[in-house]
Design goal:
The longest helix is centred in the last third of the chain and has 30 residues. The protein is elongated. Helices cover 75% and strands 0% of the residues. It folds into 3 domains: 88 residues, no CATH class; 53 residues; 52 residues. The protein is mostly helical and 213 residues long. The protein is built from 10 helices and no strands.
């Protein structure tokens, strides 16, 4: 082995590795924003009902049969694109992702959570600004943003004490009904107790279901 060649080869490998790193960064950015083209196209199809001219009666028929997409996914892309177009148009520009690190370029999932937050009446303006900052400036994962959104909604919601007490009462009754149903099913199968007791349990079950369900 020619040891004099090692530093040169190492330097060359370092350059190749750094080039690959840069390429992967760009690929990651492209991957995160590639949904925009699909969302934009689907929005046009949905808005102008273009699927009619292609022989489809409904939008969902088109996306399922032509694109292999499920209706909820297609509608989520449409709604998220419309939200971005109206509220965050800078995101749609190529320069947006180019000027940011790949780790903080928002995915469509995070933007969809932000869309839901934007139309939530239970949030304050400050709540929305915080979520937006987490999405656009910190690149927070959609699952964490959704968790924060849920916590904010619960915190802002004013719960009436009587309503809360009634909800706990209903939950307790449902738990008891489920336990009673399980008991009756087991007793019918295993025949461990007298049939008249099982009949009484069934009668009690019917009365509770009529009153509380």
């Amino acid at each position: 082995m020619n040891f004099s060649q090692q530093p040169l080869e190492k330097k060359k490998n370092d350059i190749n590795a750094e080039a690959l790193r840069m390429e992967l960064t760009e690929y990651a950015k492209d991957f995160k924003v590639s949904w925009v083209h699909l969302g934009q196209g689907l929005y046009s199809v949905w808005r102008d009902k273009l699927y009619h001219s292609w022989g489809y009666e409904k939008f969902e028929d088109y996306v399922i049969r032509d694109l292999g997409l499920k209706k909820p996914m297609a509608l989520k892309l449409v709604k998220t694109y419309f939200f971005v177009e109206q509220e965050e148009p800078a995101y749609l520009k190529k320069e947006f992702s180019e000027a940011r690190e790949a780790s903080i370029v928002p995915s469509y999932e995070s933007l969809d959570v932000l869309r839901l937050a934007r139309k939530s009446k239970g949030l304050t303006r400050e709540d929305y600004v915080k979520l937006r900052k987490d999405v656009f400036e910190k690149g927070k994962d959609s699952s964490l943003v959704r968790k924060d959104l849920t916590a904010m909604i619960k915190e802002r919601k004013q719960v009436d004490p009587d309503e809360e007490r009634e909800m706990r009462h209903q939950a307790s009754v449902k738990r008891f009904l489920n336990a009673l149903k399980s008991f009756k099913k087991d007793m019918d199968t295993l025949k461990l107790i007298e049939s008249n007791i099982v009949d009484e349990a069934e009668e009690l079950l019917k009365k509770l279901e009529e009153k509380y369900l």
